Amino acid sequence: MATSNRVLLGLFGHPISHSAAPAMMEAAGAAVGLDVRYHLIEVAGADEGVIRRILDGVRLIGFAGINVTFPYKQAVIPFLDALDPGAAQVGAVNLVTVRDGRLTGHNTDSTGFLAGLLGTVGEAAKSGPAVLIGAGGAGRAIAWALARAGVPEVRVVDQDPARAASLAAEASGWGSGRFVPDDSVPAAMRGALGVVNASPAGMLPDTSSPVDAALLEAGMWVADAVYHPPVTPLLAAAGAKGCAVMPGRAMSVGQAEDGFRLFTGRTAPPGVIGAAFDAHVR
After folding, report:
1. Which residues define the annotated binding site for shikimate?
2. Which positions are tagged coiled coil (predicted)?
């Protein structure tokens, strides 16, 4: 929690030059009278030694905390002093707070996605099977949210079948629904009523979609964790088919609102973080 007017925050990941996090956090700080300085810590291919040194720097320099994004949401865990219960269950961290020199990992991707899903898809999420594409850090957080939302069956697909199987086995204990690994997106999509992209597919400069448009049907709901661009190829195809869509904005804004409270102990006024996101991501 911030104890002075100036708050030093950051984001660790790669690639992150497009990130809306600085705009969102600095706008939230200004709205409650805090001087938030948000820095991008962009490092490609960081090994364990580099990750340890970066986190030691965060601990020593005076950061109130940092966000963590692809590809380090799981890699940072061994170098933290503690995990909150939600992050421990998810097995991934997107936010680290610094208190008295101790680093604690949290996961606001999970709560942010859940809030977005309930606000856009609502009860329809409980109506039938959903496909989750991507079983990395973001995929694990979204799996937690899907379990909490009451999705009855989630079919997990990943480029690494072992990772999909591991997540499915763990997540089956997170709620009343079941999680099953699947070999391919086309196979998983048979009879599905929802689909979530938790992979980097469609994030600029990539323009691919993780789902062939022919597999989408009116009446389905489609969510994408990618927010750059605001309308990804997947969401564009889903919208054209008459699907209900949840853009990456919902998850990004939701996790930032939760994150700001963890970093500062303050709540951003309604709409401030969303407006900062919209001004940054066009």
Report:
1. 69, 94, 109, 227, 255
2. none
Which segments are annotated as binding site for NADP(+)?
Answer: 134-138, 225, 248
What's the CA gap between 45 and 22, in Å, rounded?
A: 22
In terms of C-beta density within 10 A (0-12 exposed, 13-18 middle, 19 or more buried), how is residue 101 classed? exposed
Is the pLDDT at 167 greater than 80, yes or no? yes
Tens digit of each residue's pLDDT (9 = 90 or more) over 107-125: 999 999 999 999 999 999 9
User: What separation, in Å, do the N-terminal and C-terminal C-alpha atoms of the chain show?
Assistant: 32
| CATH of segment(s) 6-106+251-280 | 3.40.50.10860
Catalytic residue among 73, 106, 140, 228: 73
Q: How is the chain split into domains, by residue range?
A: 6-106+251-280, 110-246
pLDDT 10s digits, 12-69 = 999 999 999 999 999 999 999 999 999 999 999 999 999 999 999 999 999 999 999 9
Catalytic site includes residue 73: yes
The pTM assigned to this predicted structure is 0.90
- CATH architecture of the region 110-246: 3-Layer(aba) Sandwich (3.40)
